[in-house]
Write the structure tokens for this entry.
Amino acid sequence: MTEAVPLAPPRRLPVWWMILPAVVLLGGFLILPYASIVVMSFREASTSAVYGDGFTIGHYTEVITDPFVWGIVWRTVRTAAIVTLVTLLLGYPVAYHLARTRSRWASLLYICVISPLLVGLVVRTFAWLIILSNSGMANSALKAAGLIDRPILFLNTPLGVTIALIHVFLPFVILPLLGNLQAINPEVAMAGRSLGASRMRTFFKVTLPLSMPGIQAGAILVFVLSMSAYVTPAMLGGTKGRTMAVLVVQYLVDNFRWPAGAALAIFMAVLTVSIIVLYLRLTARAMRRLP
Amino acid sequence: MTTLRLDRINKFYGTLHILKDIDLDIAQGEFISLLGPSGCGKTTTLRCIAGFEAVSGGSIAFGGRDMTRAMPEQRDLGMVFQSYALFPHMTVAENLSFGLEVRKIAPADRERRIAQTLEMVRLTGYEKRFPRELSGGQQQRVALARALVIEPAVLLLDEPLANLDASLRDDMRFFIRDLQQRVGITTIYVTHDQGEALVMSDRIVVMNRGVVEQCGSPREIYERPQSLMVADFIGQSNTLTGRVTGREGELYVIATEDGPLRTHGAPGLAGEVRVMVRPENIGTAPGDNTLRGRVVKTTYLGASCLLNIETAAGSRFTTHAPADSPLAPGSEVTMGFAAHKAWAFAA
């Protein structure tokens, strides 16, 4: 009879090894620079270096009490809110159609949805520059249709920035919604109809509440991206369409006021997070009942 | 009285002909099963009745009113889906309340009907639970209650037991049938499980490749199939091909490779036919019809023993023997069956 040899316990790979690369990347290239910006925002200004030796909260008080800054804050938040709302309204039907269609053209539509992501942002913004100019396609089309006499000023206004941002961020609301809607059993909506509810009622009572997680994900993503968008407002916004991100860069690059610019950037980040927390609080009721 | 009438329903998907001239009259309070293999068109038929699929031709009438083009919400029916399709963001009571609110039932009435229906499906006390907090069988009963609480004219069930485990499935068969008879609701039940269809239905509609193969009571379907597909799909069967050579009273005399057989059969048979005998109707003693063969294989089933037998002409039979049968592969056996236990139908 052979003696029973105790088996060595199976070696387990330590899981933390797998997250290490991501931790290094995030820690080294996001958290550390962010921390240094926070520190910088409390340093005194200097004319001969990036910042001086002493510490101050003066940049924050200056930023927060400046009505000019608040004007731009309001415009940025308003633009981001409008972009979020419009992308949701435009994106939801597309995502819904993509989630339910059995057409063989579905993959073509899917490619159309993500195609904006395949072209560089700067290139796309130049295209908008051409389309939205006073003698551009948008204005000539409106004029030819007899809707306007004088060209609408798209460029150097919040309107042009809003239109271009909606185009840029539409995929970011469609993709999370698509995943969410595909996970909803189509028979659930059929059950609503079989119980006597119209399409509309079934949508508002069943499908829409069930798609709240997708709406949340898409809305937060687009809102954050719109708040911090730089290229589009910088190229299309001019001074009247200027947003916070553009202002921060002006502080840093044009005025060479690094500590004040850092304070402005931190202020903007805190503001964005606050709005999202408020939004989550307000929508918590709708989310609570979902599995 | 006819509750539901399907008149020459046809359905195409592109060039695919999914349903071909489906005719069906369903009487008030009847339990009808649509039975067939997957892809036979039974679920499509149900969805046409429910209004989720538009028919390409023919008409659907509820209680004499044409509803062929009506929206699902206008048809006054309750439907139980294979996935149950409960509203996951609503409690059990809210799931039931949904259809009542649509019908603008007063809150007090609503509560009373919800309580009654939940009692009927033995789920009293579960009002505040969410579907995710219930077992599969309980979810199934909520789905049933949600469809019944609106007191529809017709109840549609789409393979409702397919996702339950075997023992629960057996219980639910009787539960659903019992409930249906107590409520007296006209019911259409889609299944691919012939056992379910046999024990639950007043009538079974056997479908295959988009056509109705046969429609009749469980007994008719099992004992008097009109085609090889029905004979094979419902229960086990032995079939032999043969040719009608004469009549003896109400019996046919049919010449087969294994000799002449006396059977009853569908009226007016002539020429090529098939003879069907169920395994449980074949004994090991000579009868009206006697065949000789050799045991090829025995399979112990617990309560009985399954014998595979081959005749001299090469026909294969399966039959049951007592579990303690001494027959072993290779033994010679005599098989006998009564003329009225064999059934002939057109080949």
In short: DSSP finds 13 helices and no strands in chain A. The domain at 70-286 of chain A is CATH 1.10.3720.10 (MetI-like fold). Chain A has one domain: 70-286.
